[in-house]
Amino acid sequence: MIIFADLADRLSYRDRFTEGRNEMQWIEHLYQQCAQAHAQLDIAFPEFEVFWQRGFVEIPQGGKPYVFMDDFRADPQAHPIHTASGKIELFCQTIADYQLADFAGHPEWRAPQEWLGAALSAQFPLHMISVQPADRLHSQLDATATVQAGKTAGHETLYMHVDDAAARGISDGDEIEVSNARGRMLAGVRVTDGLTPGVVIIATGAWFDPGFGKAWQPWDRAGNPNVLTLDIGTSSLTQGPNAMSCLVEIKKHVSCTIG
User: Fold this and answer.
1) Which domains does the chain have, with CATH numbers?
2) Is 193 left (phi over 0), alpha (psi -120 to 50) or beta?
3) Residue 216: what are its φ and ψ, rounded to 5°?
4) What distance lies between CA 259 and its chain's CA centroid?
5) Phi and psi of 156, rounded to 5°?
6) Which of 40, 86, 130, 153 has the highest CB neighbour count under 10 A?
7) What is the C-alpha separation between 165 and 176, in angstroms, rounded?
8) What does the DSSP assignment read for 58-100?
9) pLDDT tens column, 28-67
10) What residues have CB less than 8 Å from 135, skipping those under 6 apart?
11) Please, is 92 exposed, middle or buried when counting C-beta atoms within 10 Å of its C-beta (0-12, 13-18, 19+)?
């Protein structure tokens, strides 16, 4: 908050940004808002000072478990859902009327641009899946000692099937190069038999660390999979993120190739 408050000060609206509160006052203000909201549900929060010393608030479990669309399930006529028919729809006329080339009005299988069934897998035969990290929130806290201690060979850890590793002369703990037509990165490998052969897994969020390898080829030295994934939407309708899956090839890294 301090950084952004100082930036706002340079633009002459510090007070509008901070609303007259410092960091601790904002924490307490947000806590009080949360406490008021829960009070409407007959859930009493402790005083802020008690919460701050304890470090948590325990929310009691309600007597009735939450059931998705329970009113609709109990009486569909009295509690229709927000569709044209008021029912669960497997076909949507509104979407069908858009006449999109890549999105029909009903569920259907469409092959991804990159997967092991694509012709491109002859050149890049490993399907890389990037997942959310267990030791940080996206990229936040990546530079901390705790997160860095979990790296492999100084890079983000990539998990690879034992057969795929053996075929490439790669051993557990090795420094590796991961590449495709869009980019290259370094990673540290952990070999396992807990994956499907042909599939590798790496967490997102390593802080981008650009550099140059042999012949001045640009790459990322941290192990950020975003240098390899596609930069396109999931479809012409949704435009959701499509950055968690792509085809790659992997080889053992030779130190003299990096500049």
Assistant:
1) 2-54 (3.90.55.10), 119-257 (2.40.40.20)
2) alpha
3) 60, 35
4) 30
5) -60, 145
6) 130
7) 10
8) PPPPPSS---TTHHHHH-TTTS--SSSSSS--S--HHHHHT-B
9) 999 999 999 999 888 999 999 999 999 999 988 776 777 8
10) 141, 146, 147, 150
11) middle
Instruction: Please give the Cα distance from 164 to 170 (Å, whole number).
Output: 8
SS3 157: strand
C-alpha separations of 248 from 11, 80, 231, 251 in Å: 46, 46, 15, 10
Residue 191 has which token pair?
């070999």
Residue 131 has phi, psi (to 5 degrees) of: -115, 170
257, pLDDT greater than 50 = no
SS3 category, 188: strand
Instruction: Return the DSSP state at 45.
Output: P
pLDDT for 258 equals 44
CB atoms within 10 A of CB 26: 13
DSSP-derived pairing of the beta strands 175-179 and 184-192: antiparallel
Strands 126-131 and 199-203: parallel
User: Exposure of 8 by Cβ count < 10 A (0-12 exposed, 13-18 middle, 19+ buried)?
Assistant: middle
pTM, 2 dp: 0.74
Give residue 139's Cα distance to chain centre.
9
Distance CA 90, CA 88 (A): 7
Dist. CA 19–CA 68, nearest whole Å: 38
At residue 144, what is the residue type? Answer: T
Amino acid found at 189: V
Structure-token pair, residue 81: 């859902």
d(CA 250, CA 246): 13
